[in-house]
Amino acid sequence: MDMISDLNTSSRFLLGPGPSMVPPRVLRAMASPLVGHLDPEFLQLMQEEQTLLRLVFQTDNELTLALPGTGTSGMEAALCNFIEPGDAVLVASMGFFGERLAEIAGRYGAQVERLERPWGETFDPAEIEAALKARKYKLLALVHAETSTGALQTGIPEIASAAHAQGALVVLDTVTSLGGLPVEIDHWDVDVAYSAAQKSLSCPPGLAPITVSERARQALRQRKTPVANWYLDLNGLEKYWEAPHAYHHTAPISLHYALREGLRIVEEEGLEPRFARHRAFAEMLWEGLENLDLPLLIPLAQRLPTLSTPQIPPSIDDAAVRRRLLDEYNIEIAAGFGPLKGKIWRIGLMGHSSRREHVRLLLGALEDILASA
Amino acid sequence: MDMISDLNTSSRFLLGPGPSMVPPRVLRAMASPLVGHLDPEFLQLMQEEQTLLRLVFQTDNELTLALPGTGTSGMEAALCNFIEPGDAVLVASMGFFGERLAEIAGRYGAQVERLERPWGETFDPAEIEAALKARKYKLLALVHAETSTGALQTGIPEIASAAHAQGALVVLDTVTSLGGLPVEIDHWDVDVAYSAAQKSLSCPPGLAPITVSERARQALRQRKTPVANWYLDLNGLEKYWEAPHAYHHTAPISLHYALREGLRIVEEEGLEPRFARHRAFAEMLWEGLENLDLPLLIPLAQRLPTLSTPQIPPSIDDAAVRRRLLDEYNIEIAAGFGPLKGKIWRIGLMGHSSRREHVRLLLGALEDILASA
Predict the structure, then answer these.
(1) Strand B63-67 to strand A151-152: parallel, antiparallel, or no bridges (unpaired)?
(2) Do B7 and A260 touch (CB under 8 A)?
(3) What is the pLDDT of residues B19-75, one digit of tens each?
(4) What are the φ and ψ backbone dihedral angles of A259, each rounded to 5 degrees?
(5) Is the minimum CB–CB distance between B229 and chain A shorter than 8 Å?
(6) Is pLDDT of A267 > 80?
(7) Helix (H), strand (E) at residue A67
């Protein structure tokens, strides 16, 4: 067999939609020798992680933990635990991850109703409220920060209130918002929210934070059928995270070391200063992009500070520019896809990646490349 | 909120059923700065990981990869991709993980037939062959190395041959065998085998190696219904691992760095020397345990070299001894559970944990504690 060499990867500036750059403190924590997944010391770390997760989710929800999978496992857990075959589910979709919500809900036998906005737009909350009045749903699922477009759905409290008035649970995807802009689970009265470690929390991918309201736990207890997914069954997961700490799976110890350290960094910085930092460097990026004649797809009021999506003029070769950014400057940004393929770039400034020097470097590199294209 | 301190865990000797101790090289590789999950350099690493996984599974199966979850996600993937509602599934269970196979198969709507041996025993292959002749099954699932008892199921080639003669696929749990004793997927003609990174491969938990035969891929392609699990759907996973490398989930980059390095260590040591090492230190442990009047539960011919299960005399306080091992010697071993609760300990010598000094230390510590109990 061919010789497989020492790990020798390039030093990338990760300015795409995630993973973001991981702070050295987090990498160091992750490299600590392992203790067992039932070691009293590890159970203590899990509790601390829960405390820190409640802080970033701005919630008192007891059932708040990190699932042993990536963000998509969070999405699947948020759906499969609350859907039984035949349940009516409303998905408000404004991009790729809204479509994935609908797709996954369908796998669990839900009767899925899709409410759609074109990629790049967002919903007027009144539109979702009207749909909720038209039919009784078990659950409403929507995306707070759409990673495929860079759009932020506002009006979550009004939408949640309308859903609850009809008896529906609210599932919110906060993958690209948690830790980078306000996510106020209790204040907004969201029932289930999930995220991913590798975005604005700046940890390595492989864990999905999730928080579940008392209302949703009640619904879980009232199921008539077992959860149709063993690995992501919150009944088993909560018995591991809470007393009696019964074995469910072997937790990804090292990733929990990392997430706990990443959350400590969030807590030290403080949520408000952290959100302000993400906002300030996003604004610096936006101004620079406009100056390069790369206007932003999303109007200011719905624009994510964590993920910016400049439009690519037809004269520019999308793939060639990204390739040169990677090969010549070690900068990763991402392509658009679906209906936005070739039309936008996706530039993430999340967590440790949200820094002045990264914005300046990227703008300088783009300037060089566009001038010589 | 209470101050949450720097990560400051104890230096444990991990001699339980996993996680095993992670070599410094693997920890170091894991702490490397991240590249993106679609970076050409990462796609290259994934290919190398596949090559190394084929080596330890002793297979040429093209569809060989590491799932983004722990060993249980491997078990669930091995079942959910091949089961459709109403399918007849035979589970040969000789312990906790056999029972979990049956439980998970049931979640996917299988008509599950359980063939059972008491915990600690194994099957005569003829018994499974007879059951396969009695009814037509879509799939036979069984455990090669039962982590709850320390028993090794022998006769896998005969069992697989009998299953194929009846048209059934063979799913084999190799969680506690892969990398520590022979697992010969192609020679044995097993269709689906899965494992976990944190056992005899000595990597951090969070990835589940899996390999799938051409026969099983054919069955996957012939499904009438979508796989009832999105995250573990091999159709989506193979499109990410193979060209066109389409986005499915954000791979746990750091864990892949670790697994690739751990597999390189396996390749450098060589499979046969590695198996011999596991055997030699297991024998050293067994002799020492017998000398301490802690006879092994499993007869020699079915005994796992990776996980030993001494019986605890009634005079000994199971929990107190384990607590003293942990508190006074920083040694983790595990309790028995289910029908073996309080009756056995589970001592793992896997991967980097399988070393002379660990055996000597554990035997010495046990001797001290039992003398002063």
Answers:
(1) unpaired
(2) yes
(3) 999 999 999 999 999 999 999 999 999 999 999 999 999 999 999 999 999 999 999
(4) -65, -40
(5) yes
(6) yes
(7) strand A63-67
What does DSSP assign to residue B121?
B
Q: What is the pTM of this model?
A: 0.98
Task: At A356, list the tokens.
Answer: 């002045």
- What is d(CA A87, CA B226) in angstroms, rounded to the nearest whole number? 18
Task: Quote the DSSP letter at residue B302.
Answer: G
Query: d(Cα A150, Cα A16) in Å, to the nearest integer?
Result: 11
The domains located in chain A, with CATH, are 13-18+271-372 (3.90.1150.10), 24-267 (3.40.640.10)
Residue B270 backbone zone (phi > 0: left; psi -120 to 50: alpha; other: beta) = left
At B255, which amino acid appears?
L
Q: Chain A within 8 Å of B12 (Cβ-Cβ)? A: yes
Structure tokens at A199: 């975005």
Parallel/antiparallel/unpaired status of strands B63-67 and A63-67: unpaired
Rounded CA gap, B150 and B122, in Å? 10
**φ, ψ of residue A337 in degrees (nearest 5):** -145, 180
Q: What would the pLDDT profile of A203-247 be if each residue is shown by its tens digit?
A: 999 999 999 999 999 999 999 999 999 999 999 999 999 999 999
The residue among A2, A5, A249, A261 with the most chain B CBs within 10 A of its CB, best to mutate, is A249
For residue A259, CA distances in Å to A29, A52, A201, A263, B39 come to: 9, 10, 8, 6, 23
* B363 touching chain A per CB within 8 A: no
Write B183-187 long-range contacts (CB < 8 A, 24+).
Answer: B183/B56, B183/B57, B183/B58, B183/B144, B184/B58, B185/B57, B185/B58, B185/B59, B185/B61, B185/B211, B185/B213, B186/B58, B186/B59, B186/B60, B186/B61, B187/B58, B187/B157
What is the distance of C-alpha A39 from the center of its chain?
30
Neighbouring residues of B339: CB distance < 8 A, sequence distance ≥ 6: B118, B119
Q: Is B14 on the interface with A (CB under 8 A)?
A: yes
Tokens, residue A47:
């509790």
Token code pair at residue A242: 């809470």
Provide the token pair at B340: 């073996």
Nearest to A253 among B37, B204, B248 (CB): B204
Neighbours of B45 (CB within 10 A): 21
CB-based burial of residue A127 (10 Å sphere; 0-12 exposed, 13-18 middle, 19+ buried)? middle
Of B149, B135, B161, nearest to B311 by C-alpha is B149
CA within 13 Å, CB half, A113: 15
Alpha-carbon distance B71 to B196, whole Å?
4
Which amino acid appears at position A109 of this protein? Answer: G
Tokens of B259: 């697994």
| Tokens representing residue B309 in the block | 């299960």
Is the CB of A4 less than 8 angstroms away from the CB of B260?
Answer: yes
Q: How far is A131 from chain B (nearest CA, A)?
A: 27
Hunting for tokens 């996954």 — which residue is that? A104
Question: What's the DSSP call for residue A244?
Answer: T
Report the candidate in B334, B353, B344 with the shortest Cα–Cα distance to residue B282: B353
Distance CA A53, CA A259 (A): 9
- Interface contact flag, A107 B332, Cβ < 8 Å: no
Measured at the alpha carbon of residue B199, what is the angle toward residues B196 and B204, in degrees to the nearest 5? 75
